[in-house]
Amino acid sequence: xxxxxxxxxxxxxxxxxxxxxxxxxxxxxxxxxxxxxxxxxxxxxxxxxxxxxxxxxxxxxxxxxxxxxxxxxxxxxxxxxxxxxxxxxxxxxxxxxxxxxxxxxxxxxxxxxxxxxxxxxxxxxxxxxxxxxxxxxxxxxxxxxxxxxxxxxxxxxxxxxxxxxxxxxxxxxxxxxxxxxxxxxxxxxxxxxxxxxxxxxxxxxxxxxxxxxxxxxxxxxxxxxxxxxxxxxxxxxxxxxxxxxxxxxxxxxxxxxxxxxxxxxxxxxxxxxxxxxxxxxxxxxxxxxxxxxxxxxxxxxxxxxxxxxxxxxxxxxxxxxxxxxxxxxxxxxxxxxxxxxxxxxxxxxxxxxxxxxxxxxxxxxxxxxxxxxxxxxxxxxxxxxxxxxxxxxxxxxxxxxxxxxxxxxxxxxxxxxxxxxxxxxxxxxxxxxxxxxxxxxxxxxxxxxxxxxxxxxxxxxxxxxxxxxxxxxxxxxxxxxxxxxxxxxxxxxxxxxx
Length: 498
Description:
Layout: H1 9-25, E1 28-29, E2 47-59, E3 64-75, E4 79-85, E5 89-95, E6 98-99, E7 101-105, E8 109-113, E9 123-132, E10 145-148, E11 151-154, E12 175-184, E13 188-190, E14 194-201, E15 204-215, E16 222-225, E17 227-233, E18 239-245, H2 252-259, H3 262-273, E19 281-285, H4 313-321, E20 329-331, H5 338-354, H6 360-370, H7 393-410, H8 412-425, E21 429-431, H9 433-444, H10 449-457, H11 470-473, H12 486-490
Parallel strand pairs: 1-4, 2-12, 18-19, 20-21
Antiparallel strand pairs: 2-3, 3-9, 4-8, 5-6, 5-9, 7-8, 10-11, 11-16, 12-15, 13-16, 14-15, 17-18
Keywords: Hydrolase, Metal-binding, Metalloprotease, Protease, Signal, Zinc
Domain Aminopeptidase N-like N-terminal: 50-219
EC number: 3.4.11.2
């Protein structure tokens, strides 16, 4: 707050002296975490980012990354200093054009003190110059940067950004992105969104990517290596860019046979979830030893291991379903992971039905029958699993089972209205399990608190009649037959074992 004092002589001087400490005292450090109880150190308080401009240079031979990040934001509090989440070595920070002092703390905190305190509601431009070897950095005992024989990859959940750019690292603070990466000629740099241009000079090629719709930090990805790129468009006209490492070996054919169906799968999913929400599409398969896949926005990451047993379109369905459930609508807090994983797994059940390999109901019946009451599977609560169980198989399978129970409880008309209406209602924002329950109640006109509590929050196996499913209520004497798609879907159970 700025006030103009018009007072005479010594009284004016005294008043001004009193005013300065009071004004300074109003500014305080931004919180080192955004407030997520699962991950208290993730994200930061005091500002909201609108755009990241990342200008990078990467040398695959040494894994050295140099960068300049320009971050556009607005303060949400009176700040004396603020934090970014970052791990590489910082050479200089400027805030609104002036050099700022900085230090590090905790596992991944970059503390920045501007020359002048920042008033609430002010525009904020932060420039960070940095360098380092991402694969040499760890936080909380692990790394989210994956070294490959021909480069490196940033892809992980719930975090990956800190290994390659400074950020407010939590889904609550989405932003748009420009990612420009300089790599040696003959090497490709893959990121999210649309490829704006490439240019070569003096042995280096610069790849310029743009994501002009809000994107969570963990959904931003970077992959550098030797890739074959394929391009095309969906029936709806969305440009598709897929990338495959040239060193996938025996997994190459199966990977291409799966990921090349990306456009087809996205068009099919749009029948259930509404129009595809972004202006770019694709996927990439680097030569990495990881086992998981990830819904990096517009361009999912797939590990070669996903295709070790042949083509696996089901995992493509899973990651593309996340473009609506997880990317377009993101979690409000990480405890809300069911909205991401339960519905992405349910999309695989719908695909099974589409392929004639088992209906969603048959998969629900088999899931329920496969886990006896004393199975630890039922102790995991998909609606709030805890950070240790955030990607447990029960969040996927019990989570999808809960979706089928909801479908049977409210009927197909209301259910598919919810399925398509939810992404539209919270587009480019964040929402919780409680928000979803309220929305399903609004659409269906039915009270659903007991159903949600039983299937998402109780650490025990519900009684069969409580399942609300037509076949489970009959309590068949013989166990359900395993649907043909079961093994394919089970093969993707480790897609998020990060």
